[in-house]
Design goal:
This protein is α+β, with helices and mostly antiparallel strands. Helices cover 64% and strands 8% of the residues. It has a five-stranded mixed beta sheet with strand order 1-2-3-5-4.
Length: 436
């Protein structure tokens, strides 16, 4: 049957698209279970499902083109008789409703039932075999059937179905029509070679797709990790900002209000017997309230602390020390520095002076020393008050905040004290020459 030979070779060659198209990024599907190679949309929501549904329309068009071409070849060949070819064409018509009503829902499902997929492929093969046996040109339909085997079934079953689709029509055709030895030999060789080729190519494409799905899973995990890192970073940033505001409020507004309360108590005690001193304390209350208001405005706007506004760090420390009856000594060459270290020194001095007023006892002598060196800036606040044991846990926030401030700019804060021996707070900050 020589007329079959020209069709057999191109039909076998065109069987090479044995699997399915490489999925687009939006249609990457999860890796199959061991031993399987199902291709289905990833459970990533409606977008992936809709993308797979839209891309599958290309397979609809492909199926229609192959079916029409097969019908044209069947009806146009010279052998066998027209009635046999017409019967084969009529049997091919059954593939259309089978594909539309059963096959397409199975092939496009996100999580298709394996039994339904196997049933569809088995039905399609059974509908294809009779016309494939009757007319050799019908085997052009394998163009559309072999890719569906790899799309619908896991690998072992896909290989079995591919074998049946390639070999069974040739065997049946040979038994029915008894072709010559040469024609039978060529058709058999083409069937075996194309079976091996389509199986190997299908396996290779599926492995590539599995790697794509694994990479897609890794990308999904990386995206999830990135979002989690962003969330944690935002939470950490919010926590750090809240901690910064807590320190600022503690070192400025809270200390100012504490000073106001102490001054109010002093004024109440002095009104009856020391009016000039009461007036002096009232003036100091006014100054402290104005200072607190300026600090509140600077805190809200994120500006420079009020004491540093338009002043050098030594001048700011002198103004601060004057409100606490403390002396200030500056050593080393004074030079302008970055705002960060200066703010840390100023706030540390505020904390140390407030603690001395609150805990050192009545009228302690307090001395502030500011030391500039080539690579550092140091602050020392010393009082001769009652002191305390640094090893006993403190319930306040001030010393912990002081250490945290220094650590933020790479510095250290050291508190030395003993009961009855006063307290010394030393803050040392690195100041590179580039800041000079």
């Amino acid at each position: 049957m020589p007329a079959d030979l020209p069709l057999e070779e191109p039909a076998r060659r065109m069987r090479t698209p044995a699997a399915r198209p490489d999925p687009a990024p939006d249609t990457v599907r999860p890796a199959p279970e061991p031993g399987g190679a199902r291709a289905r949309p990833a459970p990533g929501g409606a977008r992936a499902s809709n993308t797979w549904e839209l891309s599958f329309r290309l397979w609809d068009s492909y199926f229609a083109i192959v079916w029409v071409a097969t019908l044209v070849f069947v009806l146009g060949t010279a052998h066998p008789g027209f009635h046999v070819r017409l019967a084969a064409g009529g049997l091919l018509l059954l593939l259309i409703p089978w594909y539309l009503l059963v096959g397409r829902p199975v092939l496009t499902a996100e999580d298709p039932d394996e039994r339904r997929a196997l049933g569809y492929i088995a039905g399609a093969v059974l509908l294809f075999l009779p016309p494939g046996v009757l007319v050799g040109e019908t085997r052009l339909m394998t163009f559309a059937l072999i890719p569906q085997c790899f799309i619908a079934l896991r690998l072992p079953r896909a290989f079995a179905a591919t074998t049946v689709v390639n070999i069974a029509p040739v065997a049946g055709w040979a038994l029915l029509w008894r072709p010559g030895g040469q024609v039978l030999f060529f058709n058999t060789v083409f069937a075996v070679v194309t079976l091996v080729f389509s199986t190997a190519l299908g396996s290779w494409i599926i492995r590539i797709m599995e790697q794509s799905r694994e990479r897609a899973a890794l990308i999904t995990e990386l995206d999830a990790s990135r979002h989690e890192i962003a969330r944690l970073s935002a939470a950490h940033g919010a926590l750090a900002e809240r901690e910064r505001f807590s320190r600022e409020i503690h070192d400025t507004l809270a200390q100012g209000f504490t000073s106001l309360l102490m001054l109010v108590q002093a004024v109440e005690a002095e009104l009856d017997h020391d009016l000039p001193q009461a007036r002096r304390h009232l003036a100091l209350m006014d100054e402290t309230a104005r200072q607190n208001l300026a600090e509140a405005r600077a805190l809200v706007t994120g500006g420079t602390p009020a004491d540093l506004e338009g002043a050098t760090l030594p001048d700011a420390l002198r103004r601060l020390a004057a409100r606490h009856d403390a002396s200030v000594d500056v050593t080393g060459p004074v030079r302008p520095l970055a705002a960060g270290p200066e703010v840390v020194i100023l706030r540390s001095c505020q904390e140390a002076l407030t603690n001395a007023r609150k805990h050192a006892g009545s009228s302690p002598a307090v001395a502030v020393t500011l030391t500039y060196t080539a690579g550092s800036l140091a602050l020392s606040v010393r009082d001769d008050g009652r002191g305390f044991d640094p090893g006993v846990p403190a319930g306040g926030y001030g010393l912990a905040g002081l250490r945290a401030r220094a650590a933020e700019v790479g510095g250290t804060a050291l508190i030395r004290s003993a009961p009855g021996d006063g307290t010394t707070v030393t803050v040392c900050l690195p100041v590179p020459r580039s800041d000079a």
